Amino acid sequence: KEASRKKEYESAGKWRDRIHALAALEPTQQSITQQKKLSQDAISFVRDDEHDQVAVTLLKIRKGNVIEKFQFMLSHTQYDTLPDIEASFLSQYYSHAPDLPREIILPYIPSIPDSAFSAMVGSTIAFSVPTKGKKRKLLALAEKNAHEYLKQSRPDWEQQQHKRNDRIEALKEL
User: Fold this and answer.
1) Does residue 75 sit in helix, strand or coil?
2) Contact 125, 101 (CB under 8 A)
3) What phi-psi label fits residue 132: left (phi over 0), alpha (psi between -120 and 50 degrees) or beta?
4) Closest by CA position to 48, among listed 163, 162, 173
5) How many CB atoms within 10 Å of residue 9?
6) Beta-bridge mates of residue 65
7) Each residue of 127-144: b (16+ CB within 10 Å) or e?
8) Measured between alpha carbons, how far is 39 from 51 in angstroms, rounded to an integer?
9) Higher confidence at residue 35 or residue 81?
10) What is the pLDDT of residues 10-43, one digit of tens each?
11) Which of the two residues, 161 and 65, has the higher pLDDT score?
């Protein structure tokens, strides 16, 4: 509200969007905390072919609670499949990660077997690709965050252009 009073409308709009994004996540987090007390990471990959990028969101779950969120933007990915991007990300990220989970929840079956991956990182880690249930909800939350990160990563002028195009399309339908 303060930014709006100072006529800093772009800043006020960004704050409004952040507040709405946080409010949308709140009910989901309540159901996630009811998970078993496991050590898990849920990772989602969202591709933006127009800008040749992949947004990655990693939710770190320890003792049944989401304790951290990491987001990455991968570029120059147009010639790679998402499972290949996933395998590359897993190898690079977890070879240096200090706190390894017992399970990694993923949207695709990785091209690297979990036994080979476990040997590489020096700890037993299982891969899971859920289609329903609480693990699928965790993955959906990570995906929603990746979409939001992708949208927020666009320059302001480009976001405005997309809004204008959407309005023009809506007017054409009338």
Assistant:
1) strand
2) yes
3) beta
4) 162
5) 10
6) 62
7) beebeeeebbbbbebbbb
8) 34
9) 81
10) 777 777 777 766 666 554 444 454 446 789 999 9
11) 65
Dihedral sign for Cα 73, 75, 79, 84, please: negative
Q: Are 64 and 81 in contact (CB under 8 A)?
A: no
Question: Average pLDDT in the 104-128 region?
Answer: 89
Q: Are 61 and 141 in contact (CB under 8 A)?
A: no
Average pLDDT over residues 127-143: 92
pLDDT for res 112: 87
Query: Whole-prediction pTM value?
Result: 0.68
Report the first-to-last Cα separation within the chain, whole angstroms: 34
d(CA 174, CA 171): 5
Tell me what pLDDT residue 34 has: 42
Q: What is the largest CA-CA distance in the chain?
A: 60
**How far is Cα 105 from Cα 161, in angstroms, rounded to an integer?**
35
Taking each helix axis from N to C end, the angle separating 9-32 and 134-153, rounded to the nearest 10 degrees, works out to 170
Mean pLDDT computed over every residue of the chain: 82
Residue type, 84: D
Q: What secondary structure does DSSP assign to 4-71, as a single string?
A: HHTT-HHHHHHHHHHHHHHHHHHHHHHHHTTS-S--EEEEEEEEEGGGTEEEEEEEEEETTEEEEEEE
Token reading at 43: 């990772």
